[in-house]
Specification:
single chain, Diaminopimelate Epimerase, Chain A, domain 1, TIM Barrel, 2 domains, six-stranded parallel beta sheet, four-stranded mixed beta sheet, 40% helix, 19% strand, globular
Length: 405
């Protein structure tokens, strides 16, 4: 069966435009499945410090000997939650970034200091206004994304770049961590929409706080104690800003919801808007609790492919539990576009892959209808443009044409 439909441009509720714009000139090895090819490409780079993104350790890992033979090198995992730095880079950066250089291979440190590490990475190649503007032009013209929230604005200078690029009013919202928010002047604090909080890591780094260990034996990482988390949420509440809580594994999801319930019972009040980011392994019980608290779930249909990509590290049962959209909609009562919204996290951006993973995911429990996709992932109308899509349900193929007004 062939389906043809015109839909609005995309509204990506979770990505990192300033970060992706900054690293847009870096070597991207996300499509390279062979280690020798990846090393050959890295050796051809000429920068003072080579920054490589997109490393997928489901394909291969690098030995210390292999990377130490290269010029100063910093490698970012495709999950953006795991990093490698060779000895030449460590020697070059030790005096200026001693804390990060010393602990970059400690995954617990990485998860607890992710904002600082990503800020360090993007500052190796500073963001320009033109890079930022070009990135937004590219994701619009090539991927159909009109609006893209920046979930990790690193500093005041980045906000200035957004201002200079003319992107502030209609095409984004800013989220920052609490430390960054407190470092901003009052004018820039008013430009920040909300505070981002990490409770665990990611599947790619084996840092997601799952209920059971990964197949390789690692336990996920829960960043805060319950008491510490309650205090942080209280501090965020004092800012009168919305909160977005990164929680992928079941332990992190339970901690977030139980902490919010505990705070609510005290009568102190909760943040005006509460979003949970990713929540890939949310149970029906926690979904019902989240619904009763008025939590918005911000999820990524493209992460349904984690059930294939990461079957080397999570059980088949976990593969089936990932992204339980049908449970959330049909049983817990979440409504796409209202309290269930979608984004890409940039892995990857765009209409083709996001729609394919919505309509043709690895498991039926992850499936969204086209109407649900549009409600949760598209602009409210076609005033900025539209996407003509053609879907071949028999061949699981999607083609599209983007038109911008």
């Amino acid at each position: 069966m062939i389906i043809e439909k015109r839909i609005p441009l995309l509204k990506d509720h979770h990505t990192h435009p300033s970060g992706f714009a900054t690293i847009s000139g870096c070597l991207d090895i996300s499509s390279i499945t062979d280690k020798l090819t990846a090393l050959s490409l890295i050796k051809k780079q000429k920068e003072n410090i080579i920054v490589v993104v997109g490393w997928n350790d489901s394909f291969y890992t690098f030995t210390k000997k292999e990377i130490d033979s290269l010029p100063p090198l910093f490698i970012c995992n495709i999950s953006f939650h795991k990093f490698l730095m060779n000895q030449n880079a460590k020697d070059k950066l030790y005096n200026s970034h001693k804390h990060i250089v010393t602990h970059i291979e400690d995954q617990s440190f990485v998860e607890a200091n992710l904002f600082s590490i990503l800020q360090f990475m993007v500052n190796i190649k500073p963001l320009s206004t033109q890079l930022l503007r070009s990135f937004y032009d590219r994701i619009l013209e090539e991927q159909g994304i009109w609006y893209a929230e920046d979930m990790m604005v690193p500093d005041q200078a980045t906000i200035t770049k957004y201002d200079e690029a003319g992107l502030l009013e209609k095409r984004t919202l800013f989220w920052v961590d609490l430390k960054t928010y407190n470092s901003l002047n009052l004018e820039n604090q008013t430009k920040v929409y909300g505070i981002k909080l990490f409770l665990d890591g990611a599947l790619g780094s084996r840092g997601a706080a799952m209920e059971k260990p990964f197949l390789s034996g690692e336990n996920g990482i829960l960043i805060y104690s319950d008491k510490k988390l309650e205090k942080i949420v209280g501090d965020i509440n004092s800012s009168a800003k919305p909160v977005a809580i990164h929680a992928i594994g079941g332990k992190a999801i339970s901690q977030a919801i139980n902490t919010l319930i505990s705070i609510d019972k005290t009568g102190e009040g909760l943040p005006s808007v509460i979003r949970m980011e990713h929540c890939q392994f949310i149970s029906k019980e926690n979904a019902m609790k989240a619904k009763s608290l008025g939590i918005i779930l911000s999820m990524q249909p493209n992460f349904s492919y984690d059930s294939v990509q990461y079957k080397d590290r999570i059980s088949q049962n976990y593969c089936r539990q990932n992204n339980p959209f049908r449970m959330l909609i049909d049983k817990a009562g979440f409504v796409p576009g209202k309290d269930l919204i979608f984004g890409s996290d940039g892995i990857p951006h765009g209409i083709e892959y996001g729609l394919k993973m919505s309509l043709f995911p690895p498991f039926g429990t992850q499936k969204l209808t086209l109407d649900e996709f549009v409600a949760g992932y598209c602009m409210e109308d076609m005033s900025q443009g539209y996407i003509d899509i053609k879907i071949d349900e028999n061949k699981l193929l999607i083609s599209y044409k983007i038109s911008v007004r």
